[in-house]
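Question thread 4412

I'm putting together a teaching handout and wanted feedback from people who do this every day. The idea is simple: show students a protein as raw sequence, then show them the structure tokens that encode its fold, then repeat with a second protein so they can compare. Below is the first pair exactly as I plan to print it.
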Amino acid sequence: MLRNVALGGSVAALLNYGVLGPMTHSIDTDPDLRAAVVPDGASAAVAVAATLIDREVNLNGWTPNDPVISPSAVLDNMPNFQTGVVKAVGRFSFEMLDQIARTRGSSSADPDLERASGFLQFPPDVWVFEPSRSLLPTASSESQYREGLAALERYNARLAQGQAVFERRADTFAGALARISADLGSQTAQLERAQRTGWWIFSPKADDAFYQNKGMLYGYYITLSALGEDFAPVIRERNLGTIWAQALDSLRQGSQLRPTVVLNGNLDQSIFANHLALQGFYMKRAILQLEEAVSVLAV
């Protein structure tokens, strides 16, 4: 009897984690992702930020908080990627709130962007039952992100109706880019720490850092591509076209790296690749190009 139960449990676990798990795995880095509809007067960047949240939470299914019995619980690349995407969109929504959606930086905060920024800062790994918080059901990560998505959509609808602020000025553009560049800079420090972990060329921390940064690079590439459409007149007036295209290309190339296995080879001695160093190259190049764009905008 016990033998049959053990055998049945083993088969169930194999099917759950070995078959259903990989079927749920989806790391979508479509570089051509755009919002299906952007109403006249609305922001293309806000629309695509909402599209990213909708895709990862509602279409692909949110995995960073999946319980241990879930098929995707054995996966870590997709959860880290999704966490990185939401971190990028969360930072973008904060820059919208703090820089672009204020009149000369002195007006009151937009209520919908304030809600969106708050909800998108919520931890990614909170399930509906979280004993460390409460013995009762609690707000899950995906429920919070859906609230953030709804707030972004409300802001954009109000913007299209002329009832919200979107300052298409060089200084607001520069301010947002400077803060996003600084955020990417903090991630390069994480990459350097991850490179010093693990045995020989393999390291779980290196793998986690790679996919979270991949998600951030992708999230920033998609949102900044659309933000460039919103600020197209400023880019033309300041002759930023070449610099801007180079910065986007660096973000795109970094987001599209697809190693079969993330290797963490010794930079000085190993004959094996170090994918964190390669990713860091594109990140640092994007940072320099964004900083150059900020310098031109400040003139």
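The second pair follows. I'd like the answer to focus on this one:
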Amino acid sequence: MFTLLSKRILTCMTLSAVCAFSIGTTAAFAADPVKLRISTPAVESDWHAKMLTVFKDELAKTAPSVFNVEIHLNASLFKQGTEPAAMQRGNLDMAMISAQDIAKQIPAWSVFTAGYLIRDPGHQKKVFNSDIGEEFYQMVADDMNIEILDVGYLGTRQLNLANDKKINTPSDLAGVKLRMPGSDAWLFLGNALGADATPLAFGEVYTGLQTGTIDGQDNPLPTVKAAKFYEVTKQIVLTQHLVDAVFLSMSKETYDELTADQQEKVQAAAAVATAFNNENRIADEASLVDFFKNEGLNVYEPDVAAFRDQVQKAYLSSEFAKDWPEGIVDRVNAIQ
């Protein structure tokens, strides 16, 4: 009887231990946070770098211990423009990608790389929150296996030149080596403005301006300040040629592995992050003209109508326009 009782006790103890181990193991696995690695070429002081910290902090607040967000700035993880391919290969979870990046794989997206189409930040948000945005985001999900979470205002791009030649019309840019990111869409825009578009990685722009490898670069004013390009340039020409966007995106493979609740939390955090970026970037742009003037730069507005006319004609007669969905320009223009 003693032996039988001992066996029963031992069996119960063993089962209890197994159950305890099983519960503990399950809890441990459940507690493992979802790792989200984000790569960006942005410098730490730029708003679209700071908005990633807002995204991270918002998830920490709304979903404690659920996500482990790693932010890699200064193109330290992947070079600018290579992020979409990295997400598609499963080597990267998140990035901020441009319409120019997307247009490399989905030519219809080149409509959003065209100069003088989107009017201002408010118009940009309305366009991508409309059925147009839904339609174009679905293209990215279907054709690139990337989920766009939200659009952020990257700024209105201006010309920033190392020389002091007065620029009034596109013809004044003849022979000017204007740095552009290395894609067909970016280079077309630089050439449409009248310059000699020259591809160069963002991390090499400061030195390129300093050494004369390039004569100028185009970026929104907050980026000019954050990257300190004003230290090696003499003027800013307010061409306002592109109301630029950045799309906070996630590998669809990563996104689809999230629960419905986790997806909701990620979408909400993205909305908070882009709103933070937009508010601060718009306020920043409004104050920066005086900042650059105080730094000794000549800041002025050229004949914007002449630039708009030349750029729009260049796009409408280009190969890009052949890939645009029928009526898309009218649909974008109709959104007020």
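Top answer:
Good format. For the second protein you could add a caption like this: The mean pLDDT is 91. The chain has one domain: 33-322.
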